[in-house]
Records
---
Amino acid sequence: IASEVAMLFLTILLVVSSEGLRGVLQDTFAYLASYPSLFLLFLLFGFGVAVASSIIHFHLAKRGNATTTPLTCYDCEQQNKSKGSTKNNKKAKRQADNVGILAMEVYFPANYIDQSDLEQYDGVGAGKYTKGLAQEKMSFTGDREDNELAGVTKNGQFFDVAANDYVLFHSPYNKLAQKGFARIVFNDFLRNPTLPQYEKLKKWHGAALEETYYDRELEAASREVSLNMWNRMVEPSCFASRHIGNCYTASVYINLACLVDTARSALHGKRLMLFSYGSGAVGSIFSFRCVRPESTEVAVPAFTVERMSDCLNLTQRLNKRLKRTPEEFNAHMDLRESSHGMKSYTPVQFIESLFPGTYYLVGVDDKHRRKYARKPLNASLSFVALPSPTVAVEPSATSVAALPTSVVPAKPALVEVLVTGVAAGAPGLKSTNLTALLEGVNCIEPVSDAAKTAMVAKNVVQLKKDGAAVRRLPVTSVNETIQLAAPMAVVDLVKDFGLPKSLVEGMDDASACAVAAGLRALQQAGLVAGTVENGWGNWRLTDALATSTGVLFAASFPALDACVKEVSRSYTDPAYEFDRKLLFRLLVQANAQLAQIVGAKGPNAHVNATCAGTTVALTMAQDWIRSGKCQRVVVIAGDVAANETLLPWIGSGFRSLGAASIASNVSDAALPFDSRRNGMLLGSGAVGLVLEAAGASTLQRFPAGSPSVQLVASQLSNSAFHGASLDKEHMAQELNRFLQAVETEHGIPRAVLAAEGVYYSHETCTQATPTSSCSFTELYMLRSAFGDAGLDTLVLANTKAFTGHAMGVSFEEVIAVEGLKRGVLPPVVNFSSHDAHLSPRPLRLSKGGAYPHVKYALRFAAGFGSQIAFTLYMRK
């Protein structure tokens, strides 16, 4: 303060003319000479000010020297020490003291893509990015964020890497840092070839350097030798760069921040080496030393690595980002490309998907001036999709219109598809009973002794891996075979539906039950009368409906029942005569049979997507309607794998895989999401669903005000994975893609689906290992899409525990639609023991009964051959 006052006084004197200065001084001293005591007091005051100024300056300088800089420049310290010890230390130029870093912050976008998802999307081999580049996740921006970062480097000298406690690299991708570190260790070996830790590198001693640059064997050996040092010195700083991606100049400092965030007080007294490099073969190396707090004389240090770590909170912040799909990633990149360099542009990315405190672009005016704002610190981060692609584009020079911008038209509105009729032929129930299914009435019953004996006769052998060994476990007694199943009663299409006997005789059992379900669904939809008079059924569509009605039939084992029966009869019946109806049963399946009965002349097909059959067929039906191929589609499915003819064959197949339960009580076998899961139970059945394009004529068939159910969206794909296993990573990717499309096209956020929805699981109760069961992969998929918070609110439902697994027949679809209409859900039966492998917290399993808040039903189906499909229903 005293020095500042003195400087101000001198400044005033300088602006005074020399004559004026002499005059002022003469007058002042003449006045003081007249009063000696006042003159003496003035001198004492001046002396006191000078002493006080010196004392204050000394203490401030001492305090500055003692203040801790948590990360000080190691090179500055060493230079000061060396210069201070020279004879001419008065002339030596010292580096500034306490040069270093007091605080750190890292910015990264709130959106990221998983590299394993990108591998699948790009069609490259698994591990191309995750192992080949050693990257796990990558952050990316939309059209709101355009931060520019820069850094400073400092030249260094040769060094021994072992002299450092930690080494931090510029990391375009993590594998490059691993290779670079290994090369540094190799260089240390060349200078110290006799050290024992370099034993595996001795064959390269004396080799010309240019011959080692592309030596893959040397690279592998160097990485092996340096592995322990890498894990100790480099790995603690790599988490952030693996999860953010290449930040160019910023990456080495992000790694430093990551080390501070994770190591905290463990850094005290440690030396940190930073190595950065770039294009043009330019590199820089410099180092820091982390100062211990106790080395300062200040009671409470203002800056410490612990406070840095608390403020950074880097790991937790990275884990709060929003996971996006490859399609969303591409959409964000396309958005940035299309908006680059534009004027008169307003960004379309929603601010809700930015971190609180983020500075973002508000707009660009017609003079390319950019306006920015900051998202409030108390705002929240939420998952919001990009809006539909309506990107402003500057007109070309040849454009006729003199408009400043033009707009790419959005996609045409999607055709709304309603489910107007449903029916189910459940196992054990002679007639369609949707209420029984919604109540979770058990349809599973003991297998007959004849079927058990037939399965033992098949000489089933289960192969079980035990480490490297494979054990053969033969099934030798009826107690080791399947004990429970859910067969379906035979449908009498002649008596109950009034169909001609000659027509029915040409149907396989699976086709017959599917035809029955289709007829009942058409009847519920009000499209056919469905009356039976004088033995003849009235099931014909009107001429106005016939040409615009399609049929799709799904089955896992179409016509197999008829084939096995015929072959068996040829071996057991001495008077066997070939059945001339066999060809009809094998070729003219339920889709064609139903079309003939009702007169449906639209598109017609059979689909076999194994256990995902019904859901895949519904997806195709929705596409048919939206593409204008027809106005309505009857989707039917039928399988009788649990019936007497096929059970010994199909059941033995699942028994040999170890996927079937051999428990004898339903309460011990049908255990969805339960820790006691021990295998699936086979079922049989049929379903029918009528899908129609929404319109006035459709709604007129139903009472005013009655609820309707819309098939909002559907999606099918193939994981290209193992024929009998689920790929949880691809499932998660596909569900995220599906939900993203739902948000973009229909404006339904996934948070709303979690709060107001039910998930109808594929869960088959299998339990090969804790991390390979259906339930585990499904929960992994759901957690990826909804997060832990969403999973806590989403209701989970299951039907296979009371219907058995009816292969290509999805009772879940019918129950989902009827349940939304009635506002009820089926219960998850027999559950008693929570499985911690599925979730650390209890799952929200349906207890059955009324669930009036449930407005949406999400269905997932999976099938042999990597088939997966999703449907989403909404009550209107």
Note: The radius of gyration is 38 Å.
---
Amino acid sequence: MDVNDQNNIDDEQSTQPNLSSTSNDIQINQKQFTSLNSKQQAMTTKINGGGATDDDNVGDPSIINQSTNAKIESIQLKPPSCKMSSNLPPHHHIRGDDTHELENTSGADNFKSSRRSYYSDSSDRTKLPIHQRIVAYLRVKSRLLSCSLYFLVIFLSLAVLFSIAIVIYHLLTIYYHRQTISIDTDSCVPMKVTLCQKFNVQYAYTKLPNRFGQTDQSIINDKLTSTYSTILGTKCYTLLPLFLCSQLVPRCNSSGHAVPMCKQVCKESIHRCSFFLDIFDIEWPDEMDCDKLPDSNDPDICVGNRRSMELNQLANRHICKENGFRCDHTRCIPPNWKCDGYMDCNDSMDEKHCNECRDDQFYCSHGVCINRSNICDGKPDCPDGRDERQCFRLSDSMGLNGQGKLQVWNPILGKWDEMCGEDWQVPEQSEQVCRLLGYQSSNETRLQDETSDLPGQRQFHHHQRSPKPLRFSSLLNRQEDKCRDSDTSVHIKCHHFECGRSSHFHQRRRRNTRIVGGEESYPGKWPWLVSFHGGPAEVFFCAGVLISEWWVLTAAHCIGTKNNTSGWTINLGVTRRTSSPLFVRQRQVSKLIKHPGFQMSIDYYYSDDIALVLLKDKVEFDEFLRPVCLPANSSVEVASGTKCMVIGWGKKIHDDYADYQSAIHEVEVPIVTHWKCIQWYAKQLPYHPIPTTMVCAGYEQGKKDACQGDSGGPLLCNNQDQSWFVAGIVSWGINCAQPQLPGIYTNVPKYLKWIQTTTSKHGKPISMDTS
């Protein structure tokens, strides 16, 4: 209808009788509701691109409800639409003031046109009222958030499913290898060898008889345990148990045939572990040609290849277990060794970035910083005394006797400076330096002018020791006060390095319980303990004790039947077995000399269990590397009940396959009389009397003892001057720390003459002055 018709209708309505205000309000509201709904439907249809609406249905509440329900169902069944329209999304909430403004326009057509333009023209967005723009912005952000959450849920679900699939794959693989092979019961039997099951060789059936004709699995297990438990205990190769088991109880495949080991497993086992065959006096089960073995990832063709590849991948990732700290890109150290004041890594990374100390400060450990001027001032300021370590040295040599130009550490410049000879007090200051370096006395001092082509020099011979030496700090203070323009150097000869004494800076330390029956030792406390390593991977297997610049004393069973010196590595000055700090020295072996009375025993009840190892190159002594004393004479007998110390890296429990300790541990044990030791052991070994060349030490109730891995290490007792001498060498025992089964040690005083004769025979005699 046109405008005139609308006006006539309004006039006719105005002539009708007046109704109640309530009735009028209802009619007006119904009219407005119907009009608004019809206009809103038209607007929505045009915005969404739809065709013309059916006039009969405009304003019908049932139709609106059906449409709304359909939209709700579609929202519930479909994921959110993430396609962002360029136009402003429609908004169906109409404020009263907006409606009023639009209804004042002239005519319905104009009204519809205005509403269409108001909602659909994107170019006029900025003309929208502020509340409309805010609502529109929030709706867009809400849709983006819904889409993001939707895709995140999908991604996490896929990740979980993928992880579950991997776990199921590995479980099925293990199940297949161990359980699900279709076996020929006439050919394959369940594998029951305990040692192979303990090392999880990952197959459950074996083919018997094996190639040696053996069918009894209990006999095979006894053979493996008695012969190879020692070499397995070294852990020279992770797949060594598979190498041994696959020969004596080979895997049986689905066809009922024995499966050999893979070529790579064979080669690696022989390469890494053959060093220990002579030491433990054993042989491989049979001579094998690894090149003739198959090499395949199919477990029905050969065993071990897949596991070998997994180990190589782990090694290449440089991953440390149990939150260990990666050291030198090749080793792992315990996490509590980081920032503890001791350099365990060659590159010192374990002691870097530990605390924010100033440039003029020095980092001690555990968050402590001190002024650099306090380094080497004669007073330990760090909790561990590291600020007073290695402050002086002699340039030429520091062996049994030391000599050379005296040098002092400059903590500011980080280098060694020559100690100036200006106003040098002879012999007092020379005596003080020698004692600080570990020597008993100084017997010569030479002051030399370094600027002249023919340097002038003054030489002094010392005939007596100074009764009142100067304070340590004065040596460093004088370097600052008197040596600014001096060119005079100090050359000193020191005499008789004192054995059996650790640095005086290691005397005050707190202790932490580390192992059952013992305590962890502090770096530098036992500077004469050395570790033996063998094979290409330098696997630790025994200990020894340094007795001179050239010689190491150890147990003969640590050498076994081995005469070849290749493959041996000896670490000296080491406290933490897995560390390689700057002050650790490595030496190769020149000679291996066992006592002629020693014989290997399958039961490990040794006698004459003592040996000497001659180093290829002599060592220089320092704070972390010093010799222990030998007994004063061959008649020395340690009284029963005397408390002596056992030190080493031995296992904390009796288990052939447990790990050795990473740090030196110490345990105090009393000497047991020989007759009581025989009486106690007679209950277990009635046919193996303990010879008098052995000494026993331990408690009647057990609980404290040496253990596997301590072999070759020393039993240390005190001299009257409180220095340590080696009274025994760890030899054997029954299990570890058992009641009335003390440890058995080689009685070193009984072999003192043999030590002196042997060292002299090989041109490197040990003077009794060192004992």
Note: The radius of gyration is 44 Å.
---
Amino acid sequence: MSDHEIDYLCSFHMQAHLSLWYLGIIRFFQSRHDNTFMHMTQNIAQIIAQELNVREQQVSSTISLLDDGATVPFVARYRKEATGGLDDTQLRTLNSRLSYLRDLNDRRDVIISSIDTQGKLTPELKHALFEADSKTRLEDLYLPYKPKRRTKGQIAREAGIEPLADHLLNNRNADIEQEAAKYINSEAGFSDCKLVLDGARFILMESFAEDASLLQKVRQHLSQNSVIESRMAKGKEKEGAKFRDYFEHTEKLSKVPSHRALAMLRGRNEGMLTLNMNADPGNESKQGSYCEVIIAEHFKLNLGTADVDLWLKTVVTATWRIKIALQMETEFVAKMREHAESEAINVFARNLGDLLMAAPAGAKTTLGLDPGLRSGVKVAIVNNTGKLVAHSTIFPHAPQNQWDKSVRTLANLAKMHKVELIAVGNGTASRETDKLAGELIASVKAELPRLTKIMVSEAGASVYSASELAANEFPNLDVSIRGAVSIARRLQDPLAELVKIEPKSIGVGQYQHDVSQSQLSLSLEGVVEDCVNGVGVDLNMASAPLLAQVAGLNKTLARNIVMYRDENGQFTQRKQLLKVARLGPKAYEQAAGFLRIFDGDNPLDASSVHPEAYSLVETIAKAKGQAVEALVGNTDLLRNLSAAEFITDKFGLPTVTDILAELDKPGRDPRGEFKTATFKEGVEQVKDLKPDMILEGVVTNVTNFGAFVDVGVHQDGLVHISSLTDKFVSDPHTVVKAGDVVKVKVMEIDVERKRIALTMRLDEKAGDKPAPRAAQRPNSGGKQKPQGKPQHRTQQKSQPKQANAAMGNAFADAFAKLKK
């Protein structure tokens, strides 16, 4: 073998070894990354499990399903073995926390990388960063290392003054003027001792204010003791009258209810109120803050009366007033807003859920009336499938006053189409139009003995009527007639019609325009999705907007389903969905169980049994010697079956139990029985109300402080939380929900301001005790009654009032002395 060949072989072996070495290195780092990711996921699962008080395995399995593209409704309904039976509310909380904690980890990685690049990442700091369980704690730790614009402290450091700051901090008996003179540097802008000491002060202020442990102590003190002070903005007494409850309002910051927080924040945003955080509500002297004591104790300063001690007192005071106080006020007010917004969004979500899940009147021919005065009353008749069959406009009210003609027109239409229900919108002229509907019913009683009228909320109907969807459905129909169609349909099936309207337009929120619109939309979209999938959707009847809310589907797939239906006729089997353009196996898996096909080829397609479990049903039927068709609805047979005997590796007890229950009552509607309220005759305006009058009404909105009820006078009244029942109530949602029909008693009427106080405690009398303040809807900017002044005077044992005031005075005196 030649030397050349030997060299070639050696080179080849060396390259091979190097390649294997590089491959090993790559695999090592890849393994570390994978292990780190697994560790982080396990850690997140552990945290969420503790928060939800469930097993870690439940959370881990759920995270895997969600990461794999599963939807919350699908996981809640069809993966109970994996989740351990977590419901949709728990799953949405889990999903939200998962997103937060993953964002937290991403931010942690960025911070660690930034500090490491600076060469300042110690093992202790790294450990602290990994232990940080909130974004606030993480940012506190990052603060000293965070790139920032050139500060006064940095300028002083660049001038070489930092050693002076350290020396004075550690040598209290030093001659402060003599030491400062050593650092005079005219070229750097420190031409005398005062400027030098100012520079040293800025260095220490920044160092103190960036201490994460100190910030934690200050934050803890403020969370326990601080109050929010709301005051009238100068010269705004008349202009800001609706906020007058907050012109002199003080309340513990950590205890502010969401509706009051949002009212104050709205007042501030409109320039009617000023808001300030008071860190020391018990300190009447106002000369110093206990937070200054916390700062001094944290750094073990033990300050006396020496010149250096007096100078250090000014450092502490300035650290609090200039560096920390404003930061903490911004942070705490932001937290107050965040908490209030979260509560308000929850209120909106719960009200929306109640409204969407209101009982449907059913497939009955319905006449919809959209009331109006000068422009007339718009009339639309829809058949039992919701199809528009007739429409008109009548003018029963002033100035035309064509009352009798209007009754005749409606009577002819009602008899022609055999109308069973009349839906009257609750807007302007609704009570007058309701009276018209009453005369209509009387005039056709012989031909239509079961004709009934119901007042329907028309919130959002105008939004739908002007929408692209309505224009596509009724291109040649006047916008106002489209509104009457929507009113009629939402009586037939509230869920099917309301999904066509942006949830925010339905108007069942508490300060809904003051909260984060992105968070609100996310929450409401989840509510709509849960409601739609909870009820199920008729695949052959549903509109595209309704189909778009089904798990696994979107607007594009929903339109494609409708297009396929129009071109090929009705679906007869669920598996035909796989022929729809762009609807693949994953979307089919997620959606199929929530889509119903009535009178199709397979009776199971009309139930919530998922196609993946059809084989199990066939096994059950075979075991009992029955056809699948004979099994469906066979209560006697099904209730004698034991779910345990049909458990397999694929289908556990929860799934088998659900299947047997569904076979017993296939396609059951979880919505309640349809009920209506009857408004009192002769009570049509606020001025018609009298104290102690008992009325029937409909709950339109539930808030944290009570419930608003429509009693037919164009202005909802408030049942305060204290007047809902004879028992203590902490959450009004546990007593009533939107859509409930209730009996109320009038307690107080403010005709001028159109405010009504109601009670559901019917044994109360208007004069027995002070009634809750008559109120208007919170989302119209109405004021709320403060619930008494909180007591803020009591101090913690670690901060006696005398010590607070004395130390505060000492700091204030020292600060004033050195400013001279």
Note: The first strand starts at residue 227 and ends at 232.
